[in-house]
Amino acid sequence: DQNRFSQHGVHVWPYRPHEHLVIVLGSPLQSGSEITLPFGKNRFEIEFSALSYSSAYRNEYLYKLDGIDANWSRISGKNPLAIYSLLPSGRYRFKVKAANNDGVWNNAPIYLDVYVKSDVLNSKMLKVVIVSLIILIPFLITGVLIGRQNRKALRKPQKTEVVIPEIDSENKEKLVALEVLMKSEKLYLDPDLRLSNLANKIDVSSNHLSMLLNDYVGLNFYDYVNYYRVEEVKKRLMDLRYQHQTISSIGGDCGFNSKSAFYRIFKNVTGKTPSQYQKEVEAKVN
User: Fold this and answer.
1) How confident is the model at residue 256 (pLDDT cuts 50, 70, 90)?
2) Rounded distance, CA 258 to CA 130, Å?
3) Could you give the angle at which helices 221-238 and 274-285 cross, rounded to 10 degrees?
4) What whole-number distance in Å separates Cα of residue 43 and Cα of residue 286?
5) Count H helices, E strands: the chain?
6) Which of helix, strand or coil describes residue 152?
């Protein structure tokens, strides 16, 4: 029967670094049979023979493993053996054709299906899960940290401010005096104006003035002064007496010590660039 592999012709070699184990199939394999190999231990040898013994060494064979070999391999009957190892997981079909010593080939090849089990650690699904976890872990950690901070904030006792009427009245008087000075003396036009300069003007410490601006006005020192500067620029952009000046020079005259700072602060306060603001004012006037 020529549609069989040799009874001892399929050797499976699951191997470790210091030992070898040979498994020999105990019965011939029919064409269309299937063998299953474990992943990582899938070195195997297939030995085959044609039942033409008049001159066995002159027999010839063509074989290939679909999914691995692109072309047929040709060997003689002297050593009719095919060896494969390190196959990726999947299904393969081993085909072989034989010719006798007269060069007569069988019409259709016989075949053996080979199934290599998948490696769980290298499976696509496991890789997807691992990548997903890598992406999600930072978000989970961030969520846990934010939750802890929120719980701490809830447990933290809130400060209760006690406002003494006399002190509150004094503070408001200081702020009124400061506002009068800013408008009358236009202190904001000085690009080198410091918190200590303003504090001395109303006879308070720098720390006290900083507290007044933050608690009563809701602005820090720089935002407070720059507010007056922006208001002055807006007035001059509408004043015909300043038409000969560039917008940048107007900003410099109003206390801004750099063009970039002037444009940035003006837009933060008004939501427009100085040129946009000027064009809108001119359009309304016309």
Assistant:
1) very high
2) 53
3) 40
4) 91
5) 8, 11
6) helix
Statement: residue 24 has pLDDT above 60: no
Give the highest mean pLDDT range of 143-147, 159-163, 261-265: 261-265
pLDDT in tens, 204-218: 999 998 998 998 888
* Residue 96: CB atoms within 10 Å: 24
CA 204 to chain centre: 53
Alpha helices in the chain (DSSP H): 124-155, 165-184, 195-201, 206-212, 221-238, 247-253, 259-270, 274-285
Q: What is the mean pLDDT of residues 133-160?
A: 66
**Residue 217, both tokens:** 């006005």
DSSP states along 173-203:
HHHHHHHHHHHHT-GGG-TT--HHHHHHHTT
Q: Where are the alpha helices (DSSP H) in 92-164?
A: 124-155
For 148, residues 6+ apart whose C-beta sits below 8 A from its C-beta are none
Residue 183 has pLDDT above 50, yes or no: yes
Which amino acid appears at position 232 of this protein? E
